[in-house]
Please model this.
Amino acid sequence: MTEIGRKSGGCQCGKVRYNVDMTGAEAYLCHCRMCQRATGGFAASFVQIPTGAIEWQGEPSWYGSSPVAKRPFCPDCGTPLGFKFNNRTGLDLTLGSLDDPYGLDPVAHAGAESIHESWLDTSKLPRKRSDETASVVKQWQDAGLQVPE
Model:
């Protein structure tokens, strides 16, 4: 369990924001096909919290992704914000929607039937920062901006 206090987060456009008490939060990766499709990734990274631990500023929309669960998202930019089973009180927030997602280490893999093993350990792949990629830098400069973190 992680004891890191309060964090904030929200969607990409800023319409839906939240503050959350991370006391007892547990991070995990879900590899099930529904999470892969909902996030567009090889897995969804979540932080499991009690529903009462979150305070929304701007209400998310909810999508009934299956007969047993729903997912909050921003109705404007589409950012996936989490996952919630219909019959449970907990909420799983997407790790990427946190303003500062650091300090949370995964404790488990869920949906293991759909794991893409080759994507689990990518530590030996070459790494390149966005601000080191000329084509990315040019796109941002042409827009009159700098590459965001």
About this structure: The mean pLDDT is 94. Residues 134-142 form the longest helix (9 residues). DSSP finds two helices and ten strands in the chain. The radius of gyration is 17 Å.
